[in-house]
Predict the structure.
Amino acid sequence: MRQFILEKQPSSDGLVHIIGKDYRYLRQVLRVKNGDMLSLRLPDGSLKNSTVAFVDENAKKITLQLCADSGFEYKSITRGVQANQIQTLFDKNEYWLFQFIPRPQKFEQIVRQATECGTTNIVPIIGEYCEKISLTSFSENKLSRLEKIIKEARQQSGSPVQTKIFEPMSLEQAIDLWNKETSEGTNLGFVLSERDENSPKLSQIVSSSSGLKKICIAIGNEGGISPAEVELLKTKGLFYPLHFSVNILRCETAALYGIAAIQSTIQDFVL
C-alpha cells in the first residue's frame, strides 16, 4: 500500500478533500475507488489510515475519511516490514547528500533515488568540474520541479523522511552548513573518491563509531570532484575518503550505491 502525502492537516471531522493534480494521481495512477484503504502521511510526519469515502467524477474530487485509532499497523506489501520499524530506523540517523551538480536529467534521477532511500537533506554543490549548462538549469521553476519529484518518490516508496533540497551553493558554504548542523553528537562525512591505499574501510569507520546521528556522503558529477575539493572536504569538513572496489560508476549510480552501502553498514554495526 502506497502512502499519500498531505500538505495540510485534515479537518476537525477527519475529512480530506482531494482535487486538482492530486485527484488525478489518486484516480489515474493509484486508481482508488470507494471503500479503498489509503495511508496518509500528515504534515507532522505521522502516518494515518484512511478510507476513500466518495469519488466524485463530475466535480473531480475525492473525499477521504481518517480511520479511528484501532491499533492497526500499516504494512508495506513491497518490503514486508511494519511502518513503525522503518520510522525507527530513520529516527536514529539522518542522511545527507552533497551532490556536485550533474546534467539536469541525471540530477532529477539522483534526487528521486536519494528520496526513496530516505535521505533527509540534498545539497546541490557548485563544483569546479560542473558544466555551465548544468548550473544554468537551476531556477525557481527547477526547484519546484525537484520538490514535486521528491513528493512523488516519497509517495511511491513510503518513505517517512521529509526530504529537503537546498538552493545550490559552493562547497565552502556546504561544509559550513554541515559543520553548523553537526556541532553536537557523533557524525560522519564521506567523500567518494579515487582509490587511496591509506583510506580505512567503511566497515572499520562505522564499527568504531558510537551514537551516530548524522551521516553525509559527497558525490561528484560527470567530471568527478577536483583534488582540491577532496582535500577541502577532508580538512575542513573532516570527511573520510571512501572508495568502493567496483566498476566505474556513473554519478547517478554512485549516489544510489553510496547511500545504500552506508545505510546497510550502519544498520549492521550500529543499530
Summary: The longest strand covers residues 47-56. Residues 66 and 152 are 22 Å apart (CA to CA). The chain is about 35% helix and 25% strand.
